[in-house]
Amino acid sequence: MQLFAGAPASAAGGDADIIKNGSLKTFAQDVLRASQQVPVLVDFWAPWCGPCKQLTPVLEKVVRAAKGKVRLVKINIDENPELAQQLRIQSVPTVYAFLGGQPVTGFAGAQPESQIKALVDRLIQSMGPLGPDEGDDLLQAAQQAAEHGDTRTAARLYQQILAEDPAQPEALGGLARCLLADGKLAEARQLLEGAPKELANHTAITGAKAALALAEEAGELGDPTNLLARVQANPDDHEARYQIATIMFLRGQIETAMEHLVQIVKRDRAWKDDLARKQLVRFFEALGPKHPATAKGRRMLSSVLFS
Prior knowledge:
The protein is of the alpha/beta class and 307 residues long.
């Protein structure tokens, strides 16, 4: 981001730095540099925006409750149009979360406090050290982040786990899926091929390998935003829905992926020689028979086939 390279540094520290109003001049210090130490939420708002007036107090409440483990920078887009343009802010409120000087996740529109708190908790866990009793909590946070489509945060958490335990199978499989979601198939294959031999039959590893095979066969799937717009415009655009389902599955958004395929089966069972049902079966194989989503997916499919 060359636009911020020359921004002046400012004094930091103390409670006053937890929540502040930002600008183009202070963005490098308040966000890019600060996020090297703690997660930083950036709230893009405008004085005329009604939902902004609902969201900002919730953000401030959650950030204050974190007691310095996360920061909030508020950007008035009317006063900082260049900044809003560079970060491609299309509507307000929009919130980006920065880690390591880069935006890693975000959302648009007002959100309930519970979802904001869950996001902040994931961000905090991604920065904190891994203690002896934190492995399960960190793994759960990574899995939840992946399920919400936040593969960057999930990958960071999985990497943190693997730094402590390079042979943690769920973290290995989870990180491989994150790489697949980012289109890094070669890196995912290298990671899985380098897994310890004793983990070869672990469901997390076999499932990730099956997902890799799906990704390799699927090829270029297109832009998910455009595909979703196509489905919203025409619910019978099965090709777009099929591609969205595959993308979401590779990202870890398993149940939503299955729901899209079930919709195809419900609307046109014979589409492309029963391709949607066959893809669902492949999802089940990739997850393994004991995965809870497999059982739920089978029930969803059965309710359509035998209704």
